[in-house]
Amino acid sequence: MRNIALYPGTFDPITNGHYDIIERALKLFNEVIIAIAVSHDKQPMFSLEDRIEMVEKATSHLKNVSVVGFDTLTVELAKKHGASVLIRGLRAVSDFEYELQLGYLNNSLDDSIETVYLMPKLKHAFISSSSVRSLLKFKAKTEHLLPREVQNIIGSKERCI
Q: What are phi and psi of 39, to 5 degrees?
């Protein structure tokens, strides 16, 4: 039986912290599906198509990783793809309360799906997509926060503007 994990998020954009979580998840699960939320409430900086492209390019060399976009309940998507585990990243204690509530909510909707919390390496623990977006608005340095492939995509989009 394949042990499939779903890693849902907005990934606006995917950061080195997200990438670190993906690598860690691959050590624990046969397959990791990265699920990119449409996320109307957050009003992402990048389109769903751009975010999918960034994640696909950043993870193209990793085996057993796939990328999907979604606009449904996470537990419904997990069921559709045969995933029994949701991956969530924790950077700091401040993330824990929100993530714990989300995990309980998902469990109340489908108690056959477990949530596993993974922490990135300490050197990535301060990185958030929102801090990257803030830096991008000021055209500040972000190369140390993003996978190279993502930085290249963002750089090419800035040149087109």
A: 60, 65
pLDDT of residue 92: 85
- Percentage above 90 pLDDT, the chain: 88
Residues known to be catalytic: 18, 42, 91, 129
Give the pLDDT of residue 158.
64
* Structure confidence by residue, pLDDT tens digits, 82-132: 999 999 999 988 889 999 999 999 999 999 999 999 999 999 999 999 999
Put the strands of the sheet holding 114-118 in their side by side order.
65-70, 31-37, 4-9, 85-89, 114-118
Pick the CATH number of 4-160 from 3.40.50.620, 3.40.50.300, 3.30.1380.10, 3.90.180.10: 3.40.50.620
Amino acid at 156: S
HEC secondary structure over 44-85: CCCCHHHHHHHHHHHHCCCCCEEEEEECCCHHHHHHHCCCCE
Q: Are strands 4-9 and 65-70 parallel, antiparallel or unpaired?
A: unpaired
Which are the contacts of 73, defined by CB distance < 8 A and separation ≥ 6? 109
